[in-house]
Amino acid sequence: MFKQTLLAAALIGMSGVALAGHDAKPDANPWSNFALENQLRAMPAGDVTRGQQIHEQMMCNACHGEKGESPSRNYASLNGQTTDYTIKMMLDYRDGRRWEDYKQAEIMVKIAQAMDDQQIADVAAFYASNPVTTWSYSQALSPEDHAHADRLVRKGDVNRMITPCASCHGMHGEGNSVTPALAGQVPEYFVRTMKAYQGHHRNNDVNAGMSQFTHDLTDAEIDALAQYYASLNRKP
Ligand code: HEC
Ligand code: HEC
Predict the structure, then answer these.
(1) Residue of the nearest CA to atom 1 in ligand 1?
(2) Of the ligands numbered here, which is closest to the C-alpha atom of 176?
(3) Domain 143-230's class?
(4) Residue 139: closest CA among 45, 204, 226, 20
(5) Domain 2-11+36-129 matches domain 143-230 at the CATH topology level
(6) May I ask the CATH architecture of the domain 2-11+36-129?
(7) Is 111 near ligand 1, meaning CB less than 6 Å away?
(8) Is the CB of 121 under 6 A from ligand 1?
C-alpha cells in the first residue's frame, strides 16, 4: 500500500515536477564492469507471477502495455528484454545513473525509487518471459536505406570506428545479459535514446560505449536503424 501511495504521489506530482524544476540529481559513481557484475549476482531471483502482479499494481501497464509491448509511440517496449538489462535500468534510474535531462526519464526515476531489489528482479523476470512483438507502426524502409542499415548492423563502419551493432546486440537483435534486445523496440523511443547517448544526456552505459558508437551517426542513419530494428522479429 505504501509503495502504491508513493507511486500515485509520483504520478500526480509529474506536472508539478516539470513546473517546479528538477530535484537534485543524486550522486552515483559510474559502473565498472566488476561492480556491475557483483551487483547483478547479488540480486534476488525474480518470479514471473509476482512480476506480473507488480506490473499491474504499480501501473507499469498503463504506459508499457499489458505484457510490456508498448501501446504508444512515447514509451519503450519491455517484453522480450533480457533480465539483466531491465534490472540494470531500474537500478540506474533508482540510483541516479540514468537521468536524461527531460521529463520522461524523471517519471522512471520516481517509480524506481519506490521499488526494492526483489520487486525489480520480479518485473525483469516477467518482461523476459514475454515474447517480443514487432512494432506495428514501423515504416518500411526503401531498399537502399534497408541495405545501409543492414550494413551498419552487420559490418559497422571502420572509417568511423563503429563496431557492428550485431556483434553485441545479436544477429537478430536479441541482446545478451546487460546488452539490450532491440528487436521490436518502439522507433520513436529508439531514436530518442540514441540521441540522448549521442548528446551525452544518457550516461549510464559502462565505459560510455554507446556514446562512442552513436557519435558519428547521422540523423537519417539513426532513423533507418530504428525502423530496421522495430520491424525485426527476433528468431528463437
Ligand atoms: C507514466 C508512464 C510510465 C509508467 C507508469 C512506467 N513507465 Fe517505464 N518508462 C516510461 C518512459 C517514458 C520510459 C522511457 C524514458 C526515456 O526515454 O528515458 C520508460 C522506460 C522504462 C525502462 C527502460 C527501457 C529501456 O529500454 O531502457 C524500464 C525498464 C521501465 N520503464 C520499466 C517500468 C516499470 C517496471 C514500471 C512499473 C513499476 C514502469 N516502467 C512504469 C514511462 C512509464
Ligand atoms: C560493444 C557492444 C555494443 C555495440 C557495438 C553496440 N551496442 Fe548498443 N548497447 C550496448 C550496451 C551494453 C547497451 C546498454 C547500455 C546501458 O546500460 O545504457 C546498449 C544500448 C543500446 C540502445 C538502448 C536500448 C534501450 O532499450 O534503451 C540502443 C538503441 C542501441 N544500443 C543501439 C545500437 C546500435 C544501433 C548499434 C550499432 C550502430 C549499437 N547499439 C552498437 C552495447 C553495444
Answers:
(1) 63
(2) 2
(3) mainly alpha
(4) 226
(5) yes
(6) Orthogonal Bundle (1.10)
(7) yes
(8) no
Predicted TM-score (pTM) of this structure: 0.92
Cα–ligand 2 centroid distance for 185 (angstroms): 12
If you take atom 3 of ligand 2, which residue's CA is the nearest one? 168
Domain boundaries in the chain? 2-11+36-129, 143-230
CB distance 185 to 172 below 8 Å: no
Residues in the chain: 236
> What pLDDT digit, counting tens, does each position of 61-97 carry?
999 999 999 998 889 999 999 999 999 999 999 998 9
Pocket test for ligand 1, best of 12, 69, 104, 107 (most atoms within 8 A of CB): 107
Residue 201 CB neighbour total at 10 angstroms: 16
